User: Which sequence fits this backbone?
């Protein structure tokens, strides 16, 4: 099966032999979901997840004792991941090169899960050139209590604005409170330019509709508004990867959706780790074929 040929637009099947220990350990106590069930989710979605999470620097949210206990955000290898999880050198601000983590197959993915990973976050750049962005992400963060209806219409506003300047976008529900509006990029522009573009666009939207949006960092200014988190687009920043589980109540999953579905979806935590079969089916559907793919570069702003 592993060498079977697939249509060019379908990812290759991905299977792993990495053993998962403590399958019965409860990781999501409020819903009694175990490490084994989490591992089954990742094993099932590996083939549709690897095209996104693979071959880019990643950060992991690890919660070895479950999501209710101590979790940590891990960017570098502490030396314990073995040979299925790889390193890519990234020069830090202090001039030193640090080994960032990346994976490129199901064994790498499952090794991270075995090590207590719940969430996978990725840079917006691939390991071939970490200085050039391969996506823009507008992370729409609603203030507490804001209706999802407001987030939904915000997502459409971003779609329309980006479309008007020549960028096709794709929506993802995060499994949390908001939505990511993602513009794939052919890797050309480097981080300073990409961040500047995202910042200016976010500011322009906030200025034109200050009732609904803010791009300001102080929390006080986010009251009742959607914070356009343009900082996802700076060097070293990460965003949750498609099909990653979230370390939140009920084990929701970040999931690509269509713009059509955005019209009616009721919550960004619509999908959960029990939905792997449905997520696989969706990923192979016509409606989601080509999701996240577009050959485009940053326009002038
Ligand atoms: P939500 O829809 O609930 O906002 P989200 O994934 O967008 O979900 P945010 O809090 O907006 O969550 O965070 C945006 C991104 O910032 C995350 O996807 C993650 O990649 C990154 N991030 C989150 N926590 C940390 C952290 N402790 N350190 C560094 N980056 C983080
Ligand atoms: Mn967010
Ligand atoms: Mn955010």
Assistant:
């Amino acid at each position: 099966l592993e060498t079977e040929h697939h249509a060019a637009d379908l990812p290759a099947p991905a299977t792993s032999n990495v053993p998962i220990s403590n399958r019965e350990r409860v990781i999501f106590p409020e819903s009694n979901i175990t490490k084994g069930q989490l591992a089954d989710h990742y094993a099932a979605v590996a083939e549709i997840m690897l095209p996104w999470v693979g071959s880019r620097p990643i950060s992991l949210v690890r919660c070895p004792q479950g999501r209710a206990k101590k979790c940590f955000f891990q960017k570098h290898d502490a030396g314990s991941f073995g040979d299925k999880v790889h390193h890519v050198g990234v020069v830090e601000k202090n001039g030193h090169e640090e080994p960032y983590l990346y994976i490129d197959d199901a064994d790498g993915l499952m090794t991270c899960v075995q090590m207590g990973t719940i969430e996978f976050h990725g840079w917006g750049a691939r390991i071939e050139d970490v200085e050039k962005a391969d996506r823009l992400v507008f992370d729409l963060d609603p203030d507490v209590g804001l209706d999802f209806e407001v987030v939904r219409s915000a997502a459409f506003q971003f779609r329309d604005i980006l479309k008007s300047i020549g960028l096709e976008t794709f929506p993802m529900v995060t499994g949390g409170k908001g939505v990511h509006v993602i513009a794939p990029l052919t890797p050309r522009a480097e981080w300073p330019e990409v961040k500047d573009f995202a910042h200016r666009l976010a500011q322009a939207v906030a200025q034109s509709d200050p009732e609904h949006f803010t791009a300001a960092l102080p929390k006080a200014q986010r009251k009742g508004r959607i914070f356009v988190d343009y900082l996802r687009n700076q060097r070293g920043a990460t965003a949750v990867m498609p099909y990653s589980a979230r370390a939140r109540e009920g084990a929701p999953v970040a999931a690509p959706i269509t713009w059509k579905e955005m019209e009616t979806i009721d919550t960004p935590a619509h999908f959960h780790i029990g939905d792997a079969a449905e997520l696989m089916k969706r990923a192979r559907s016509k409606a989601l074929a080509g999701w996240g793919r577009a050959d485009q570069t940053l326009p002038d702003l």
In short: The helical segments are 35-53, 106-114, 148-164, 191-208, 259-262, 276-283.
